[in-house]
């Protein structure tokens, strides 16, 4: 006896738009953000093919709900439009802190997904000043959600091919 179970799922794409995502290896064709946008577009394309809902949230100093989760092909087109218009800037999480303690990275008001079986895909380089993104992932994974993290890094970040004296600058803080 064979059976097939179809379930509607909600796919949330959480895209890091902080300044560190704007880095490409010397001579590299694309920066990390461009790769993340292409991956988000590909994953977003698959969601309506399976009858799943799709939504997009950008993560930076001000997390924003760019595309509310809904079903059909229209959300994918909205995701494509949002990806086309996005730019990298700022830092991941709120730069302010209270008594030296970092503030919490909070998702936007439109995100309150406690739905059974929601899939959350986080596309980031995971450069964080404290543990704001790690803490967020822990909160998201608490419950009936499936959280998947895709860490993007360039060849230069992996291998550090630089010779001689090199001065590295944090693109988010400028230091």
Tell me what you see in this structure.
There is one protein chain. This protein has about 180 residues and is α/β, with parallel strands linked by helices. Helices cover about 25% and strands about 20% of the residues. It has helices spanning about 30-50, 75-85, 130-140, 155-160; strands spanning about 10-15, 55-60, 65-70, 95-100, 100, 120-125, 145-150. The strands form 2 sheets. A 5-stranded mixed sheet has the order 3-2-1-6-7, sandwiched between helices. The relative contact order is 0.21. The mean pLDDT is about 85.
Please describe the structure with a list of short key phrases separated by commas or semicolons.
175 residues; alpha/beta; 7 strands; globular
Brief overview:
The protein is of the alpha/beta class. The chain contains 4 helices and 7 strands; from the N terminus they run βαββαβββαβα. 26% of the residues lie in helices and 21% in strands.
Distance between the termini: 64 Å
Counting DSSP H or I runs of 4 or more residues, the number of helices is: 4
Instruction: From the alpha carbons, calculate the radius of gyration and give it in angstroms.
Output: 18 Å
- Indicate the structural class: alpha/beta
Strand segment count: 7
Major sheet details: 5 strands, mixed
How are the strands of the biggest sheet laid out side by side? 3-2-1-6-7
The overall pLDDT, averaged over residues, is 85
Shape: globular
Share of helix, binned: 25-40%
Percentage beta strand: 15-25%
Secondary-structure element order, as H and E?
A: EHEEHEEEHEH
Low-pLDDT sequence parts? none
